[in-house]
Write a structure and sequence with these properties.
The protein is of the alpha/beta class. It contains 15 helices and 13 strands. Helix 4 links the parallel strand 4 and strand 5. It is globular and about 75 Å long.
Length: 382
């Protein structure tokens, strides 16, 4: 179907003129990136080239490939053509499609999104949001909270849930919707601003040069980047008169962190619902989405046809390697898959992992550390 052009690319406008039944739209990024956001109708085919080389790819099908910026997908399209496949790359990739997907009627879209939180997803999202805040005593009267927005689905939903909570106004507290620009690409910055405008979230943006600072770092640059971003958020929030910062980690982040600590870190620990800052006196970090499931966030996003960035990093095309907690996304995806497999045999495995760190019996622990970092061994009092 696609002509054998010198450069096997197709624009979004050209693709719109072709009936979807005539081609297969393939996202060649990894599963982490695909899960964060993709073009409707696309399938995740990270290993499409390997499939072609192994003879497992249908040669009677035409393929449209895309990655984040149209760089990797173009190389794969060339390779597939050399193997005799009809394949092209979507010019400028997912980021270009994302920029073209916004509706000009922001007011109507905002109303639809807010209605979905109050009606269709009230039990899954707002009820669990409020329960987490109440159960872990996250907000007090007079608080001024910096709601930290990275641009992804989790933090944007958190902003809308805070607005809904504020609408109930059971006691006075203030909100600042804080966006730190650590060196965003132009596309990522625009996507965040467009989403905030469309969803009615009045963001406060401040710039840093974190990406440039970690560019030359070879050992754990993502971890260092995450630590620096956290520090800048605390500092800016305190400057704005806030006493708390809120991050968008959810229930799945918590159980994955518990299991990752055991499997990859040889330790038992969890992601706390709130904690005091050790470097910024009087500041506290809260995670109000602690009880919300990621699948419900994805359902809310897709129901409202919303599209967010996965990661702000501009050093890689797919950017699946860094997260705002400094962990490896590949290890986190492995852990997701492990939990999914265990769930096939035990439907309660997720809640059991979550509850395991609330039912710790110290008399059966060989060794543990107290809050001061002192080590206690069971032989000490045997």
């Amino acid at each position: 179907m696609f002509e054998d052009n010198l450069v096997p690319e197709i624009t979004i406008e050209e693709l719109a003129d072709i009936h979807p039944s005539l081609y297969r739209l393939c996202d060649v990024r990894d599963e982490v990136s695909f899960r964060y956001g993709s073009i409707p109708g696309a399938v995740c085919m990270e290993n499409i080239l390997q499939m072609a080389e192994d003879g497992e790819l249908d040669k009677s099908t035409s393929y449209v490939l895309y990655c984040m910026k149209g760089i990797d997908s173009l190389g794969i399209a060339y390779a597939l053509r050399r193997l005799g496949y009809d394949a092209v790359s979507l010019k400028d990739g997912y980021s270009e499609w994302l920029m073209s997907s916004y509706d000009s009627d922001n007011d109507e879209k905002q109303k639809e999104v807010e209605k979905s939180i109050r009606k269709k997803f009230h039990k899954q999202l707002f009820t669990r949001f409020a329960k987490g805040i109440n159960e872990y005593d996250m907000i007090q009267e007079g608080d001024k909270i910096a709601v930290c927005i990275s641009g992804g689905k989790d933090s944007m939903l958190m902003a809308k849930l805070f607005q809904e909570l504020k609408r109930h106004n059971k006691f006075p507290f203030e909100l600042v919707f804080l966006v730190m620009d650590p060196g965003y690409s132009e596309v990522n910055r625009k996507v965040i601003e467009k989403n905030a405008r469309m969803l009615g979230v009045p963001i406060t943006v401040f710039e840093t040069e974190i990406f440039d600072a970690v560019y030359e770092v070879e050992k754990s640059p993502c971890y260092l980047c995450a630590r620096m971003r956290r520090g800048y958020l605390y500092s800016k929030a305190k400057e704005l008169g806030c006493n708390k910062i809120a991050l968008g980690h959810h229930y799945d982040d918590v159980i994955e962190t518990i299991l990752m600590g055991m499997l990859y870190g040889a330790q038992v620990q969890t992601m706390m619902p709130k904690l005091h800052s050790t470097n910024f006196e009087g500041m506290e970090l809260i995670r109000p989405m602690y009880l919300i499931r990621e699948d419900d966030i994805i359902k809310w996003r897709d129901y409202n046809n919303l599209h967010f960035i996965q990661c702000a990093c501009h050093f890689t095309d797919t950017c699946s390697s860094c997260r705002d907690d400094g962990t490896s996304a590949s290890k986190r995806m492995e852990t997701k898959q492990i939990i999914a497999r265990m769930k096939e045999f035990n439907p309660f495995v997720e809640s059991n992992i979550f509850k395991s760190v609330t039912n710790v019996n110290l008399s059966t622990i060989i060794q543990y550390k107290d809050k001061q970092g002192n080590t206690h061994n069971f032989l000490d009092e045997y």
